[in-house]
Amino acid sequence: xxxxxxxxxxxxxxxxxxxxxxxxxNGFSVIKAGSGEEALEILEEESVDLxxxxxxxxxxxxxxxxRRIRSREEIKDLPVILLTAKGEEIDKVLGLExxxxxxxxxxxxxxxxxxxxxxxxRRSGSNHQESSTMSTSKKEFVESGxxxxxxxxxxxxxxxxxxxxxxKEFELLYLLVKNKGIVFSRDQVLETVWGYDYFGETxxxxxxxxxxxxxxxxRGINPExxxxxxxxxxxxxxxx
Length: 240
Known about the structure:
Blueprint: E1 5-9, H1 13-25, E2 29-33, H2 36-45, E3 50-54, H3 62-71, E4 80-85, H4 89-97, E5 102-106, H5 110-133, E6 141-144, E7 147-150, E8 155-158, E9 161-162, H6 167-178, E10 184-185, H7 186-194, H8 203-218, E11 226-229, E12 233-236
Parallel strand pairs: 1-2, 1-3, 3-4, 4-5
Antiparallel strand pairs: 6-7, 7-8, 8-9, 10-12, 11-12
C-alpha cells in the first residue's frame, strides 16, 4: 500500500521542512505548499489524503483555502487539520465551523503532530470503509418528523430538501437523532465522532452543535430540538 500523502501548507519554510522531515519519518509522503494559492493549484492536479493547513498566511489564508475545499464537490470531505498560533481563538472557531477536522496550536510537538494526523486519517478511513461495505438498513436510516438522515448516502433531508452538513456535523447529528432522548456528554461525543484518540477540546463539540442548530433553523426546524443539558452535554429531543 502506497504511503498516505499529506499536503503541508505554510508560508514559513523552516516549519515546512520540520513537518516534511518528521512526517516522512512516520511513513507519510509529503507535498509542500508555501502559500494558499499554491495549495489550491496542487489540489487541482494532485490527489492527497489530508491537508495540514496554516491559518495565517499572506494572500489567500488558510480559512479561505478551507472554505474552497469544502465548496468543491470532489474534495469536500478531504480531511483538514489547521495549524493555529496561540491566541487565534476566533480563526480557530471559524475553521471548525467551516468543517476542519482538527487543529494544532503552534508551537507543536512532532509526536503530537503525527498522532493527530494518524487519528484523523484513521477516522476518515473507517468512515469511507463503513459507507462502502454496509448495506442500507433501518439502523442506517433515521427519521424524526420532517427530518430524515441516511447514513450510507450521507444525506440529510428536511421536507425532502437536502441540507449541506460538514462531515463531523453529519456524524454528530446522526448520533443524536438515532439516540433520541439520550444525553451524550461532550467527552462521549468526542470519543464517538472524532475517535478515542482525538486530542481536541470539548469546545469543539459546542461549535459544531451551534453550526448544526443554525442550519436546521434555516430550514424551519426549531434549533432547540438539540437540547443543552447543563453540566452534562446534549440530547436530541424534538417537540411532540
